């Protein structure tokens, strides 16, 4: 799922629509619930999920939890190309939203 900042909802992704049909749109709160459930089932198994939890908390205005999950993201080892890409984005997001804003 990809955040659409204009609508405040998670939109449909090309991957999901191609392989899974259409994804339902949902609120940030609903998406956060899905991300947290995935993390509960398989802790730290997918770096992108940890990043999305942090980004969703940020969108919801909970900067303390957002910062915590961004730091968890940055503590992950880059095993896959996706991990590397997520870590680059997370580092920029962290620097722009938590270091430069101090």
Number of strands: 3
Give the ordered list of helices and strands: EEHEHHHH
Overall 3D shape: globular
In round numbers, the mean pLDDT is 83
Structural class: mainly alpha
Rg over CA atoms, rounded to whole Å, is: 14 Å
Name the helicity range.
55-70%
Per DSSP, the total helix count is 5
Distance between the termini: 30 Å
Characterize the structure shown.
By secondary structure, this protein is mainly alpha-helical. The chain contains 5 helices and 3 strands. It has helices at 14-19, 28-41, 47-59, 63-74, 81-99; strands at 2-4, 9-11, 26-27. The protein has a 3-stranded antiparallel beta sheet, covered by helices on one side. It is globular.
Topology of helices and strands:
Layout: E1 2-4, E2 9-11, H1 14-19, E3 26-27, H2 28-41, H3 47-59, H4 63-74, H5 81-99
Antiparallel strand pairs: 1-2, 2-3
Summary, kept brief:
This protein is mainly alpha-helical and 102 residues long.
Features:
three-stranded antiparallel beta sheet, single chain, globular, mainly alpha
